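Researcher: We're teaching a course module on how sequence relates to structure. For the next exercise, students receive a sequence and then see the predicted structure as tokens, so they can try to spot secondary structure elements on their own. Here is the exercise chain.
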Amino acid sequence: ALLAPELVSWGKRRGRAVSSLLMPVSFAAILGGVVTLIGTSTTLVISGLLQETGNEPLSFFEVTPIGLPLALAGLAAVLVLAPSVLPTRTSALDISSEAMREFVIDMNVDIGGPLDGVTVERGGLRNLAGVFLVQVHRGDTLIEPVGPDLVLDGGDRLRFVGRADDVLDLHAMGGLTSTESDQFSGFDLSRSAFVEVVVGNTSPLVGRTLKQARFRSTYQGAVVAIHRAGHRIHGKLGDVPVRTADTLIVLSDSGFKERWRDRRDFLLIAEISDSPPANPTSSLVPVLILSVVVILAATGVLTILKAAMLGVLVVLGLRLITVAQARDSIDLDVVLVVAGGFGLAAAMTNSGLADSAARTVDRYLGSFGPLTVLIGLVAITVLLTEVVSNTAAAVMVYPVAVSTALAVGADPRSFAIAIAIAASASFLTPVGYQTNTMVYGPGGYRYGDYARLGAPIAAFVVAGVPVLTAVTRGL
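Model: And here is the predicted structure for the students to work with:
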């Protein structure tokens, strides 16, 4: 979330395709997250589950002997493979001051208005600055290309293509009404700005249309374009159901990013127009506070919980954020998943489901030894994390892994650590891990792009995590 907008700007300045940069950075973030205890939520959850069952929680660097070599080797593989397997895609962020992406808007010819019954040329629609009339929909008839002598009829739907700011000027033209007039009403275009947002899988927008979500009144912004899997969605935007990883181009005021950056509605918010540079002093203080929190937790001076709470109190005390912003930054869905995970793990253990699953794994793989058993469990976890959240995958596999380890005479703690790392290894889809979803729209990626680069990395994790676990900890 921090690097994506800056990386896009850097790529543009150097003529690099955004699609060649964002996915490798996402994968690097995933790999880097398994180096320490606080790098990813799965290690924290597994640590909590170990403590809940009467074991010592994971220490800060306990996963490092496995995670660090895995991260370094995985990052090297990403750097080698990415240039050859990642295609060049057009990013939704390519709407820029230099050449905005073609923006499409539909306008209706007012019945009885000044354009009803006149030709395209006489109506002044022939030589608009930066805007082109490309289609006329008249009932069930599509007219294209549109000639200058075409006589317009009231009720015709005209499709214009051009720069977003120029196209929006059509709202001021007499005789035309936008098909999305309810979305744009009340906007002072001279004081508005474009922002790009990526919809996450926990957003309340998912599965709802813009009208159902009352986007205009809820978010104080108007969606002027929707990009999905590298393609712009055409048609009446208000009636399009929003999906996870959709990229929305929003016309709003300059305070949009500030209002929504800490909420779960959007994974990533990037300003498309130029914005003032951040104050380097105010940006440095949170980094210093985070560093102190990490040092206190890593050296054992404070527990992770106490160190984190101290950091929050300092941030609030220095008024870097408000209490309301701190509250809004808490994703209750994640809290509920983690809290519910403890109950699920206990239920699987107490009901005998974990033992039953462990016996099944032992029956098919046990004769090949603990290493093969662990490879099988890691493979299951890697696949499971692509269809459920990484935290949920860790919670579901943990009791099975512990029971299986006991059944084959292996160390349950080593199995638990391997599962914690494997649960974060989401490289095959854009929805398995939040960073993958963040870069999906801005990078212009398609689903298959993740598998092209991610499949070799996932295979490496399936083989590498058990081997590194056996070498560094023993089974």
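Model: If you want an answer key for the exercise: The chain has a mean pLDDT of 83. DSSP finds 18 helices and ten strands in the chain.
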